[in-house]
Amino acid sequence: MTIAKADFIEGIAKGMAVLESFDTERQRLNATLAAERAGLTRAAARRHLLTLTHLGYLETDGSYFWMAPKVLRFSGSYLASSRLPRALQPTLNRLAAQTGESFSAVVLDGEEVVIVARSGSYGAPSRVLAYGLHLGARLPAHATSTGHVLLAGLNAAQLTQWLKGRSLPRLTPHTVTQARALRSVLARVRKDDCGYASEEHELGVQALAVPLRDMQGHTVAALNVVLSGGSHTQVTLRRDMLPILFEAAREVRSLL
After folding, report:
1. CA terminus-to-terminus distance, the chain
2. Domains and CATH numbers, the chain
């Protein structure tokens, strides 16, 4: 969405940039680091950090700052009010109980995908993934099965715009880092109507995803199953899980 310049509040944008500079790689920031990440001067970043701390969204020891529990108000309000997570949760829980695996519903947000609903694992406890599979976790779109499915749902102009000026970081030796190669992957995803990623964002992790479409045929989210340990081949994963994912996608379509 674009707005008139007169309607744009630059102070809010800068404050949000400071908040967004905190992530799993940098959980604690000082003013210098926050300034680098948010694209601000050190003095401006310091003022925003102090203001956010005063409002209760950050905590500090006087030198470094980190997120306070109050920031969960945003995610809590989204999960409570958004129809998508509430509509999908029963299906995710059923799939996990049926298979003993972990399932997630994911949406595209810029260069990343965000988990908006997920099941628990009803089988043997799985190891904790480096990138995490918690609600709100953000993963690189170019290196995930759900990202491939969601990018494949863009039209040609939208995909070109998404790729324009964007780097595709190498996270493992298997990560696709070239735009042309990614386009080839997405073409295959469109043909198969599903996406498979093996060790592209984390070694030992495989995932299979399908699009979740509304009644108008628009891809609004992606549903995936994630397995760790590398014990499944692509052939067996597709054979065992793809029918389950496709059926679940058909089941929830009228709810989206």
Report:
1. 22
2. 5-71 (1.10.10.10), 82-255 (3.30.450.40)
